Amino acid sequence: MLPSQLLAVNCIKCGREYSDGFFKESEPCYLCRRKGYSDSTDESLHYQKKTRPQPETVNCEKCGFAYNIEHFSSCPKPLCDPLFLPRATPSFDQRYRNENDTSNESDTSSLDEDEPLLLTAPFRAFAGINPDSNPGAQADESQGTLGLAIDVFKRAAQATPENFVLSPDGLFQTLSLLMMGATDETRQLLQNCLGEECSEPSGATASSATACGQDQYCITNCLLVSDMHTLQETYKQRLKQINADIRDNVNFSDRASLQSLAQELNHLFCQLTHGLVRKFCQGRDWQSDTSIALINSVYFKGLWERAFKTRSGGAIFTLPDNQRVLLDSFMDGKINASQQAKYKKWRAVSIPYQGDHEMILVLPPQGIMPHEVSPEIIMALFSSLDSEELCLSSSTVSLGLPPFSVDSDTDLIKALAQTTLHSLFTNTLSLGTMLLEPVPVFINVFNQHSAIEVNEQGTEAAAVTHMGCMRGFSMNSPKPIEFTRPFIYILRNRITKKIIFIGQILDPRKSGAGTSGSGTQ
To answer: 339 lies in a domain?
Structure first.
């Protein structure tokens, strides 16, 4: 903090503004003097305002997206074609028409003949991914991260008594960036929990960014590194291979520049998520002793293989408290009879998009909430839906679904601290292959901002995951301390350690704090 802008000058070494009342015009700031920099006799440099060079940006030749070549080695939008349109483009209804007319198809009963398949009670949805490069990836997913994904969902959903969305892939992509630079116990923990399939993060140039049919699935990664640390060259090169945004000279002590950085990142990721995530970070998210910050975004957009139709008159929806409400908007559609499954009264349907993705909707038994699901139930439903024997049916089933739009901001630390990754938040991290001179750090920020929109034509979803690590030896995140009960106060000399005064406060009302005139029990 500067006592006066009139007294502020710029350090000739680092450019920071400072004022201490005793400065000599030829000296660097006190931080540079602590680092051993000597005095300078060039006084003109001392008062010269250090200006930050303007970032050099270029426009992608394919999509026109403007990006900083100092941060990205190529355009961060992997789908540089007309399909990858900005958020302000016309809606699904204006751009596309469904070519599959299902009006003449045979319509059979639902899984239970006396129970139509209408999602008019709390349910959950999965945007499933069918990898095109590894046929065994789905099995690996079930045995590896699927259980962890469901566990995180259960805990986050239970703590969120409202509409909610989470991106496990965004979470695992962020942890993959961490694992790539981790050593010792940190790496072993991440490998045990995530498996080898998450050992390498995906990026804008990776095979996970696809444009099959009308599907778009895009991943972007970003790394912020304190100017007090140096990245390992091998780690930096691996990040460049996935076209990650690398900013390895961040001054986390400069609050003004952090605010500008937050605005810049919010603008960038707003564009990358087509406006679904407009703001995910603030300057105050990073403390002065922040070492690194990892940021990941995922974006999905897909058209239904069979478009839904709007139901006139809406539908009745039963809320968790058994209150029945009338929905003005409701959608009717059809699926193949083979696209449904049942396990222990839990029901699931698969709704395919035109490309390689599908939406799996899971309807709990009556009286059961979505967060009561288990990995066993999901694995059984997935196994049934993936069974090749069910693909022979050509009959159709009617499906009713409300359109929905959800926006969630989730503190992942609370959910992950209750899973097999709990020691990630109780022990310091070892980042021996990320930082040249690694120091003990702990995770103090792990948030995800997710959004999804589902309508008659398709789905658009995005998530930005943000992890921050601070230097320190305690994994307990700093918590506010409020002296709202009797306390002791001590005034002492920091050099001699002598106690000058000591006392207690039992009732602040008698010591000048005042009172509203009313008490509470």
So the answer is: no
Establish if 281 belongs to a structural domain.
Answer: yes
Classify residue 502 as exposed, middle or buried by CB count within 10 Å of its CB (0-12, 13-18, 19+). exposed
Instruction: Give the count of domains, the chain.
Output: 1
At residue 412, the pLDDT reads 92
Structural domain boundaries, residue 266: 99-304+403-471
**Given CA atoms 20, 22, 24, 30 in this order, what sign does their dihedral have?**
negative
CATH number of the domain to which 260 belongs: 3.30.497.10
Q: Is residue 365 part of a domain?
A: no
DSSP state, residue 365? P
Question: Pairing relation of β-strands 290-303 and 216-226?
Answer: antiparallel
E strand or H helix that includes residue 222: strand 216-226
Determine, yes or no, domain membership for 205. Answer: yes
Instruction: Tell me, yes or no, if the pTM score tops 0.90.
Output: no
Say which residue the tokens 């250090």 belong to: 50
Q: CA triplet 478, 289, 441: central angle to 5 degrees?
A: 75
Within 13 Å of residue 302, how many CA atoms lie on the same side as its CB?
A: 27
Helix/strand/coil (H/E/C) assignment for every residue in 399-455: EEECCEEEEEEEEHHHHHCCCCCHHHHCCCECCCCCECCCCCEEEEEEEEEEEEEEC
Mean pLDDT by 10-residue block, N- to C-terminus, for the chain (521 residues)? 44 57 48 53 36 59 67 61 36 37 38 49 53 39 72 89 88 92 90 73 48 74 92 91 88 92 93 93 91 93 90 86 87 85 87 86 86 89 76 76 89 90 88 88 93 91 94 58 70 67 73 56 50
Q: What is the DSSP letter of 349?
A: E
Q: Count of CB atoms within 10 A of residue 416's CB?
A: 23
